[in-house]
Automatic annotation (TrEMBL):
Protein name as catalogued: DUF2794 domain-containing protein
Lineage: Bacteria, Pseudomonadati, Pseudomonadota, Alphaproteobacteria, Rhodobacterales
Pfam families cross-referenced by the UniProt entry: DUF2794
InterPro entries documented for this protein: DUF2794
Organism of derivation: Roseicyclus elongatus DSM 19469
Length: 111
């Protein structure tokens, strides 16, 4: 039997990136920062989705969102990269494969 301390609410389950996923995302983020393309990020852990948002400047709309939606794991894949306009740039089951859509943009930015 599980007891809650008096006055506390049961904690709602949240979706979060694990250490391996954050390592892959932050590695990509660091390369874009070094290239001068990205300057800030934000992370949200919600009930149905975890979001890593990338910003060109602080206090603006994100230019990309990297999302993890476990409910889509058996369908299109739980990972997605979404552009500023809401368009899904890539979706899939493997995070590193999905992140490659942004790697191509970094190569173009450096050239």
């Amino acid at each position: 039997m599980h007891f809650q301390p008096t006055g506390s609410q049961p904690r709602a389950e949240q979706v979060a990136f694990d250490r391996r996923e954050l390592g892959a995302i932050l590695g990509l983020y660091g390369r874009f920062v070094a290239a001068g393309e990205w300057r800030d990020y934000g992370i949200s852990h919600l009930r149905d989705v975890a979001v890593f948002a990338v910003f060109r400047r602080t206090a603006e709309h994100p230019i990309y969102r990297i999302e993890k939606r476990p409910k889509l794991r058996d369908k299109q894949g739980q990972y997605a990269v979404i552009g500023m306009d809401g368009q899904i740039l890539k979706r899939g089951h493997d995070l590193k494969t999905v992140l490659r859509v942004l790697d191509r943009k970094l190569i173009r930015a450096i050239e």
